[in-house]
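Human: For the file, kindly provide a plain-text protein record giving the amino acid sequence and the C-alpha cells, at your earliest convenience.
Assistant:
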Amino acid sequence: MIRARRRYAMRLPISLCPDGRKSAEGLLIEISQEGARISCLGDWSCHAGERVSLSLPDGQDMDATVRWTHDGLAGLDLTAPLHCNELSDLLAFNRDFTAPKAARPEQRYGT
C-alpha cells in the first residue's frame, strides 16, 4: 500500500481523552501530517469514528478521530492536518525528549 503522507517514528508519552470519558495513557509511536498511531493503550476501548483529544508532553493538544483500534493500538486521523513546520517542531521535540541525558550538549561538560 502506498501512503499519501510520509510517516515518522516517535516515542512520546501521551494522553488520549474521548469526549466525556476517562482518559487513557499511551505512547505516540508514529506521526504524519494527517494522522498518528498510538500504542500501550492496554484494555482502553474506543470505537472508530469517536472524537478524542491527544495531549502531548509539550502541552500541545490535537483533536482527532479514531480510525481503528485493536490489541492496545489505535490509529487516529488528525482533525486539522499539521503544517510542515509544526511537524518539524514536533519531530525536534521528540528527539530532545528521548535523547539520553548524557548526550545533551548542555549537560555534556557539566554546564
Remarks:
- The first strand starts at residue 8 and ends at 18.
- Residues 84-98 form the longest helix (15 residues).
- The two ends are 48 Å apart (CA to CA).
